[in-house]
Amino acid sequence: MVAKTKVPPSNGKTDTKVHAPKKLDIACGQNKQPGFKGIDIAGDPDIVHDLNVLPWPIKSSCVESAFCSHYVEHIPHHREGWDRDGWWIFFDELHRVMKDQGQVEIIHPYVRSDRAFWDPTHVRFIHEVTWHYLDRTWREAQGLDHYQVECDFEVVTLSLLGLPDDYLARNVENQNFQRAHYWNVVNDLGVLLRARK
C-alpha cells in the first residue's frame, strides 16, 4: 500500500467544495472541452485548484470520462512534502477520481519532437512505453511491482498526432524506422487509458 503523500497547501485560490463531475477536463486553462467540467488554477475552470495539491476537491470514483491536453509534461518530479515522483502522485489521484472502466484521453508532445523541448516549463519527455508503467499487470510482468504506485490503467490506444503526408505515404516498416531514428516526424502523442479498479 502506498503511503498518502503530504502536500503543502496551495498559495493560490482553491475551491474547497467537493465536486462529482462525470466529465473532467484536467488543466483546462482557457480551452475547456465542451460538456466537461474543468479543473485548473487559471483560465476558465469550474473547479479552481492546484493539481499538485492533494486531494483534488473531487469525489472518488465519480468521473466517467477525463481529458488532459498538454499538461502531463509539466508534472513536477518533486515538491516539498512529496515522498515519491510527481508522476505517480498525479496518476494515483487521477485513478482515485475515475470510475471503474472510466476513460482518460491525454495529449502531450512526442518525445522526439522539438515541441517537447521548446517550453522551458516542460520537465518530462514521454515515450510510448512510459504509459505502460501505469498498468499494474505490466508492472508485475516487468518485475516493477515494487514501484510506489497504486493506480491501474489499461493502455487502450496510442495515437501519433501531427504526422506529415510524406510520412503517411510510406509503408509501415519505413514509418517505424523514421519514428525510431528521426526527430520531428511526430508532433504529439495521444493516449487513451481505461481505469481498472
What's the arrangement of secondary structure elements?
Layout lengths: L22 E4 L10 E4 L6 E2 L14 E7 L16 H12 E12 L5 H4 L17 H6 L11 E9 L3 H4 L3 H10 L6 E8 L2
Parallel strand pairs: 1-2, 1-4, 2-3, 4-5
Antiparallel strand pairs: 5-7, 6-7
Textual characterization of the structure:
The protein is α/β, with parallel strands linked by helices and 197 residues long. The protein has a single domain, classed as Vaccinia Virus protein VP39 (Rossmann fold). The chain is built from five helices and seven strands, in the order ββββαβααβααβ. The chain has helices at 86-97, 115-118, 136-141, 165-168, 172-181, and strands at residues 23-26, 37-40, 47-48, 63-69, 98-109, 153-161, 188-195. A seven-stranded mixed sheet has the order 3-2-1-4-5-7-6.
Shape: globular
Strand order of the largest sheet: 3-2-1-4-5-7-6
CATH architecture: 3-Layer(aba) Sandwich
Spans where pLDDT lies below 50 across 5 or more residues: 1-11
Number of strands: 7
The number of domains: 1
Helix content: 10-25%
